[in-house]
Specification:
This protein is an alpha/beta fold and 393 residues long. The protein has 2 domains: 212 residues, 3-Layer(aba) Sandwich (Rossmann fold), CATH 3.40.50; 161 residues, Rossmann fold (3-Layer(aba) Sandwich). The protein is built from 15 helices and 13 strands. Helix 9 links the parallel strand 9 and strand 10.
Length: 393
């Protein structure tokens, strides 16, 4: 099958959404698909090469309006050009990049089958806007409105909508009026060849100066307000001194300044490590060096980092910033966002008890591998094409 993917993120860099669509693309080529990948970034910028994947960069996004300027328009123009010379069986869109494709398909009823993939809903994230200062809020509201328009159109014109979690599905139905039978949950996956319990983290622990008796809590992701990073400092402050925290990810300069101020105020200079941006390919060592993974976000779709931590066999603690299937629900230690003392006690009790590990559960691998996700989505593609063919007979 010839798939044309529209998604701004493609490596490098590896931050944000990037690893998910990349791993899905790679898994889709394993089952015989050919992928044309339209992504953001400078036209001649280097990109990860994979057999069966052809990548076209369509330009970098700009502040405030993100990819909605020339980047998304160039992606649409590239789609039109490719369509004239190559057979496209299905288009699979993610995020902002398909914006002008959505407009075109809505106006012209372009017959190409289309799947729109929701990793979050921008409408769901709008609940944060009241917490921002007015300038940041203005910028956020402008981009959110464009996001909402793009997502609403995508849900309207797509043959099927994929949501990464039950919570994202519910939001799409509530905010974008998607018919329940049109939207289906296909959860994110894990590359088990990359993330598994055979990874050795001893070297990284030695670099950090940790002993075998020290406990290291890990967070991986962008250090920003939505990820609720300041709450991590409250958490670690309420834990014994042999507990340490490693925050892995890129950050906003102003926000990280407040993080450093709180570290100093709480006397945590020797207990908190700020690593900055780490390549996705290097992350397994950071997981393996840790004793637990913690996520205190205010809002999530279905965080891949949770699945990666579970694949490494780490206990995972999270606020209820997303909903998931019962299988995954049972693997997570749920904690309250606004109760750092209770959260700290929950973490301490779990790590100092002999709670069983989950990686021996073969069902987890089968349910959350990218290969399984790719096969599930392949069935969605086939059902769409079959239905279109039947209607054309």
């Amino acid at each position: 099958m010839n798939i044309l993917r529209m998604c701004y993120e493609y490596p490098p860099p590896w931050d944000g959404l990037t690893p998910g669509p990349y791993e899905l693309t790679k898994a889709q080529t394993k089952i015989g698909n050919q992928i044309i990948y339209l992504s953001g970034g400078k036209k001649k910028a280097p990109h990860q090469t994979e057999e069966g994947v052809t990548v076209y960069r369509t330009g970098r996004s700009i502040p405030i309006i993100k990819a909605y300027g020339l980047t998304a328009f160039k992606a649409f123009r590239k789609y039109k050009k490719i369509k004239k010379t190559e057979e496209i069986d299905i288009v699979h869109g993610h995020g902002q990049l398909p914006f002008y494709f959505h407009i075109y398909k809505k106006l012209t009823r372009d017959p190409v089958p289309y799947v729109f993939h929701l990793h979050i809903t921008s409408k769901g994230r709008e609940q944060q806007k009241k917490h921002y200062k007015w300038r940041t809020r203005f910028k956020a509201i402008l981009s959110w409105r464009l996001n909402n328009l793009c997502e609403r159109m995508g849900c309207q014109i797509a043959n099927r909508v994929i949501a990464v979690s039950e919570s994202v599905k519910k939001e799409a139905i509530q905010y974008y009026k998607v018919a329940p039978e049109k939207i289906i949950v296909a959860e994110n996956g894990v590359n088990f060849e990359r993330f598994n319990k055979t990874i050795d983290g001893k070297k990284k622990r030695e670099e950090l100066g940790l002993s075998s008796s020290d406990k290291l809590l890990l967070f991986v992701g962008k250090l920003d307000y939505r990820k609720n990073i300041l709450a991590f400092l409250e958490l670690i402050k309420n834990l014994p001194k042999h507990y340490h925290l490693m925050l892995v990810g890129s950050h906003n300069k102003k926000y990280v300044k407040s993080i450093r101020q709180n570290i100093k105020e709480f006397n945590l200079e020797n207990r908190v490590f700020l690593t900055g941006y780490v390549e996705y390919l290097d992350l397994p060592e950071y997981y393996a060096a840790s004793d637990a993974f913690v996520l205190l976000s205010r809002y999530e779709g279905l965080p891949k980092v949770v699945l990666e931590a579970l694949a490494i066999d780490l206990p995972v603690f999270s606020t209820r910033s997303f909903s998931c299937n019962p299988k995954l629900e049972r693997m997570i230690g749920w904690i309250e966002e606004n109760d750092p003392e209770s959260a700290a006690e929950n973490v301490r009790r779990r790590l100092e008890s002999s709670v069983g590990k989950i990686l021996d559960n073969k069902d987890f691998k089968q349910s959350f591998s990218w290969d399984s996700t790719a096969l599930f989505i392949q069935d969605i593609y086939r059902s769409i094409i079959k239905k279109i063919n039947q209607n054309n007979e």
